[in-house]
Recover the amino acids of this structure.
């Protein structure tokens, strides 16, 4: 019985696979300085940004792909990728001008824009293959002085802010994919919350990779000025494809004094089929800087998609008394590979961080947690607690844990716990006894297992996250 | 102690300032490999050139390698060390230097001076059970080539490790122990490694330990340094445990701060065998212990413990790896560190459960106390699990002494200093509890207490025997 269910689990197909025919404006494949210039020109960027892109490109050419992760990454030909694709029509002014096909796509994904606006009060900055198509609720936000727009708009209208903060958390030299992103990033979101403002709604962006063979190079910059608060959601789905798609995004968050940022992600890109063919490569650099005293940053992620995930949302606790949290559920199935975790760098005094990671592996997938907790010599009274649990569904998958703890101060307290086990037979038996089918029982157990993290998500997202868990482990789980 | 002259003066002076740190040794080997082979056993020479080739390719490990992330060997390896390639005899009377005598331990006693087995006629060794062979590896390799050929290098030659390869190229002798089928040693075997030289000295020794089916042995390895010069010891120990055999390995290091101790312990466990490893670093300079245990049979029990007390600028890095290749085995790991002053601690606990190693249970704990602002601890548990029906966990903490516990004791009239001591002593207690030789356990308890009181913080020769 249990074997049947595990079999079903490993046979589950991707539910969100479809392609929308929208005319896209694609530049030819390959990457060189001219391509970088072309992207910059297409977006009418100022010179300083072009220079920055070129600097990053030149640095990128000197770098190699990182190989330390517990991942088998097929060779990627970076000259065989088109680095820019944009819906051809110019940005629409209202809903009527939005391509009906595009609206349809969102409808298929179950996120009708109108409904979202009306019902949940979420402002959606929908990103369809790189160029921002539609931004909602901008007016409401503008009243409070909040800036929530696409990255290109921010470059146009708020160049000072962009110039001041871009690259301040993730420099272009940071790593291979960050350098690549900095050179060719197409668009993304920009959020600025002014001093003392509490953002009245959850800010949300839906990413969706759409055109064939285009890498998605998003760049998100969130700045929370003193005493402000914002909760930001990011969700992803991608259509079914044969060829691997590369996604190398950067998210930078700056949290000033007394400010708080909550960043939540649900990621469900195409993970490849049962044979491990296709799927998205998700190589993302996410980092937040708790710059001011008493600042707070929280990352929550639910990772169910992508063929390969390489992602470490990190926090630099620079301000005194700053705190950071990282909550993660990562599910891998079929041939998926995930190497994900976090970094907590304690620099200020009295800083605290909390890590909670739940990994679930099924099929022949490999799921790794990799986390670093570093306490600098001057970080008095730093406190960290990390817990990472792994659940194995099936005897051909792997679960790995690589926590690093580097403590240079004697007043620090750093704790780490990890467990690995399979689903408890006793619990399944207990449920069976009470008339719950094994299928539902496994679902209950897995949901309970991930509950601590799911609870951290905002309401709307929590529902979607649970659905995604169900779909990923279709047939048995949830 | 008599001074020894013109004994370990190297035939070749190594400048340490050539292109790379490796180059001088590569040149040395190319020039003197004939002598090296001439003064060693033919069995040991079989893979010597291959090991050398591997070393040429790998070089010395740097902290950029994941497995050596917390060990920086650049400084220790840049010293100018002499090597005793021609196996010149070192006139030392180990009994005069050491009266190794843990009260009540009644061990079989053997010496390795620098990197060569040092034969003594000890009456205590006369009662060694029949069939047990203990002696110099290179000599025994000539007497029992068929035995040693089957084992020598079988574990170490599979490692892609610069230090192990270096050892394979340069090691000429070491300690050899063979306990045949169903023979159980009634007393522990004590192996005293003495570092003795008038000039900075590098020792490369290779130990081989074989336990037949159902055999039982306890080995206590003590590391000591005598002279106030820089020592670098690069030792590889291979241990083969037969089915149903029981083996206990205690490594006690008490060396001075100019010592670099690089030790690789490779253990292969067959079905239903039981292994205990206890690695205690009381006083040292720079220490890197690599301990790799392969569980190649079902129903094995493995317990690996260790502790380190370090202050000044001492460095202790324990890299451990337990590999479960077969189902139904249990392993447990426990490491504790107390770090003071500017000392640096490192711990890596790799745990690998292969695809078919179902019903494995493996638990790992690493706890560390930092007593000083400048002390540093790096810990990296690492679980790689490919089987689903397993129970694995690990926990690691870095922190301080419990203030409330200290306060509790103080409020009951125990002075603060004493309370601290008690807490630290209790902290290391569960590692010491895992010493299964009573006399040794008592001795270590005393030594740890002395060490924590600061009475051992200066090098005092062999603390086991004083």
């Amino acid at each position: 019985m249990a074997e049947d269910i595990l079999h079903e689990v490993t046979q589950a197909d991707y539910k969100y696979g479809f392609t929308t025919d929208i005319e896209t404006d694609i530049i030819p494949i390959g990457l060189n300085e001219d391509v970088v210039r072309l992207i910059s020109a297409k977006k009418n960027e100022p010179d300083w940004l072009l220079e920055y892109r070129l600097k990053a490109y030149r640095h990128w050419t000197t770098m190699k792909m990182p190989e330390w992760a517990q991942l088998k990454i097929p060779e990627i030909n970076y000259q065989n990728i088109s680095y820019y694709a944009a819906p051809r029509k110019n940005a629409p002014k209202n809903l009527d001008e939005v391509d009906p096909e595009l609206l349809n796509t969102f409808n298929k994904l179950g996120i009708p824009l109108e409904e979202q606006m009306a019902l949940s009060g979420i402002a959606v900055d929908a990103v369809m293959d790189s160029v921002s198509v539609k931004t909602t609720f901008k007016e409401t936000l503008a009243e409070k002085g909040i800036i929530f727009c696409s990255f290109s708009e921010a470059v146009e209208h708020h160049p000072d802010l962009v110039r001041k903060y871009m690259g301040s958390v993730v420099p272009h030299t940071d790593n291979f994919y960050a350098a690549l992103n900095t050179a060719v990033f197409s668009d993304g979101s920009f959020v600025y919350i002014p001093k003392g403002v509490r953002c009245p709604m959850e800010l949300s962006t839906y990413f969706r990779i759409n055109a064939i063979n285009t890498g998605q190079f998003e760049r998100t910059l969130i700045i929370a000025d003193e005493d402000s608060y914002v909760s930001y959601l990011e969700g992803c789905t991608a259509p079914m494809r044969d060829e691997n798609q590369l996604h190398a995004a950067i998210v930078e968050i700056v949290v000033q004094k007394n400010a708080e940022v909550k960043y939540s992600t649900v990621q469900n890109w195409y993970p490849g089929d049962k044979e491990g063919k296709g799927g998205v490569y998700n190589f993302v650099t996410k980092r937040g800087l708790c710059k001011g005293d008493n600042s707070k940053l929280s990352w929550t992620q639910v990772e169910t998609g992508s063929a390969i995930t390489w992602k470490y949302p990190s926090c630099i606790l620079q301000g005194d008394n700053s705190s950071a949290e990282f909550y993660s559920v990562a599910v891998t199935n079929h041939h998926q590979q995930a190497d994900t975790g976090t970094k907590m760098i304690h620099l200020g005094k009295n800083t605290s961080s909390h890590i909670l990671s739940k990994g679930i592996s099924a099929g022949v997938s490999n799921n790794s947690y990799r986390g670093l907790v570093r306490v600098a010599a001057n970080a008095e009274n730093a406190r960290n607690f990390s817990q990472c649990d792994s659940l194995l569904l099936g005897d051909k998958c792997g679960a790995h844990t690589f926590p690093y703890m580097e403590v240079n101060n004697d007043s620090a307290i750093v704790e780490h716990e990890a467990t690995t086990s399979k689903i408890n037979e006793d619990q399944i038996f207990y449920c069976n006894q009470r008339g719950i089918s094994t299928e539902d029982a496994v679902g209950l157990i897995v949901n309970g297992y991930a509950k601590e993290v799911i609870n951290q998500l905002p309401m709307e997202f929590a529902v979607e996250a649970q659905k995604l868990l169900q779909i990923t482990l279709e047939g048995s789980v949830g | 102690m008599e001074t020894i002259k013109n004994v370990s003066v190297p035939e070749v002076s190594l400048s340490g300032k050539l292109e790379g740190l490796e180059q001088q040794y590569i040149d040395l080997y190319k020039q003197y490999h004939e002598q090296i082979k001439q003064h060693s056993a033919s069995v040991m020479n079989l893979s010597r050139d291959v090991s050398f080739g591997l070393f040429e390719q790998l070089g010395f490990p740097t902290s950029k390698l994941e497995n050596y992330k917390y060990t920086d060997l650049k400084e220790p390896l840049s010293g100018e060390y002499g090597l005793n390639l021609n196996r010149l005899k070192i006139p030392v009377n180990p009994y005069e230097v050491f009266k190794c005598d843990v009260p009540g331990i009644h061990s079989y006693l053997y010496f390795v001076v620098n990197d060569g087995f040092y034969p003594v006629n000890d009456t205590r060794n006369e009662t060694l059970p029949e069939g047990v062979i203990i002696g110099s590896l290179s000599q025994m390799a000539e007497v029992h080539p068929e035995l040693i050929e089957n084992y020598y290098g079988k574990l170490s030659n599979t490692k892609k490790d610069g230090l192990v390869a270096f050892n394979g190229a340069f090691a000429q002798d070491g300690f050899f122990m063979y306990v045949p089928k169903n023979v159980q040693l009634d007393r522990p075997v004590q192996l005293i490694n003495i570092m003795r030289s008038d000039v900075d000295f590098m020792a490369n020794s290779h130990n081989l330990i074989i336990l037949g089916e159902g055999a039982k042995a306890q080995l206590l390895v003590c590391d000591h340094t005598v002279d106030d010069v820089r020592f670098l010891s690069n030792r590889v120990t291979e241990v083969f445990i037969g089915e149903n055999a029981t083996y206990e390995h205690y490594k006690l290091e008490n060396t001075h701060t100019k010592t670099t101790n690089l030790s690789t312990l490779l253990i292969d466990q067959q079905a239903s065998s039981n292994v205990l490893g206890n690695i205690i670093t009381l006083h040292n300079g720079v220490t890197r212990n690599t301990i790799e245990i392969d569980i190649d049979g079902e129903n094995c029990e493995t317990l690996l413990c260790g502790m380190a007390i370090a202050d000044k600028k001492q460095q202790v890095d324990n890299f451990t790896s337990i590999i479960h290749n077969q189902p139904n085995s249990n392993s447990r790991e426990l490491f504790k560190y107390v770090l003071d002053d500017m000392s640096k601690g490192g711990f890596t606990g790799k745990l690998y459960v292969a695809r078919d190693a179902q019903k494995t249970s493996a638990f790992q704990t690493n706890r560390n106390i930092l007593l000083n602002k400048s002390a540093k601890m790096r810990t990296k548990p690492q679980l790689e699990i490919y089987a689903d029906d397993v129970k694995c966990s690990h926990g690691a903490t870095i922190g301080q002494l419990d203030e409330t516990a200290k306060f509790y004791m103080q409020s009951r009239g125990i002075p603060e200093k004493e309370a601290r001591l008690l807490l630290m002593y209790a902290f290391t207690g569960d590692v010491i509890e895992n010493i299964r030789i009573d006399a040794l356990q008592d001795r270590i308890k005393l030594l740890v207490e002395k060490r924590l009181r600061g009475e051992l913080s200066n090098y005092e020769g062999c603390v086991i025997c004083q």
